[in-house]
Predict the 3D structure of the following.
Amino acid sequence: MSAKFINTSRSQKNNTSYGVTCQTCENLKCLIKRRLPILNDSRLVQQKNNINCKKGQQFIIEGAPVNGLFFILEGKVKVFRTGINGREQIVRFAKEGEIIGHRGFGTEEYYSIGAIALEQVKLCYFSKDLLQEALRENPKFTYDMMLFYANELNKSESKVKTISQMTVRERVVDTILYINRKFGTLNGFLNLPLSRKEYADYAGTTEEQVIRVFSALKKEKLISAQGKKIGVLDMAGLKKEINEHNYFLDS
DNA sequence: TCATTAATCGCAC
DNA sequence: GTGCGATTAATGA
């Protein structure tokens, strides 16, 4: 909770608490890892920081000043924004290889979002200044980042449409499909245990609505539920729910 | 086992 | 559809 994770003063070489450097990292989804050949001797990769987060720990606080960007090395997080009456709207879920906090990058001085670890998470933290330096010097890297931003914008525009035009039932189904697409399944259940409230916060409804839709879907044999674990029984049936209204979005 | 926390359900608006 | 409160199930210390 304290601000010590923003501590960028790490004297030595590339060693970290758990020994992952950009060179030894195996996460090929990471933009920086993919461009390592051209970024290898930049100060950016030499001075990155590693941060360990426990489950439930918030590592980005709304309103805090932006000093850099987070890349997820391992684990899953949720990114949210707090609404008027204190209700939180989950903007997206993110997993390894994704970037967090990029919206505040550049002109914004403060984060407009918060981020919480959903499980044990390892993060790579890059300072804003060094990142800007790397972007100015490496057009290819800059281009990759631009594609990432364009893609993110597209997804968030799709989500606006989802929330404003779909019924609650469709939004909940859409959320299940989204989690399924993004995180896959494990032993027949979605590979990401979320509370009903978290489903609600993502789908833009209330916890009760999610429960009601879930129990309806269970009766219809479309999904199964055991506590937090949700299993998809009839993928085609769920997709049909949304396809019928032509709102299916692959975000 | 007891104490919390989360999931459901029912009911009024 | 939404929001509150009571009941019950699940989880953790």
